[in-house]
User: Fold this.
Amino acid sequence: MPEKKYFRCPLCGAILSEDQLTPEGQCPYCLAPKEDLIPCDEGDLTWLPKEELLTKNLWEGDKIFLRLLDTRDSFFTLKLVYDGDRLTEAVLDGRERLR
Assistant:
């Protein structure tokens, strides 16, 4: 079986395999043409069991986001601000500061 090629769309940030492109070879979310897509260097993309996800090396904001996905039933917004690799601010729904 040939190895799947993945691309990152520079306009919307989607990571896509070739079989996810439109028949015209565009990003299905923002219609960026294939020639504008960037080969993905994120490593091997694989599905993980949910319980394994938090055992991986994640950004601090990713941990907050995943915890919210697991504990909230309603829509939320989350603003994450980094200074380099350090999370400096996490604001939930525009008002509640998380840490």
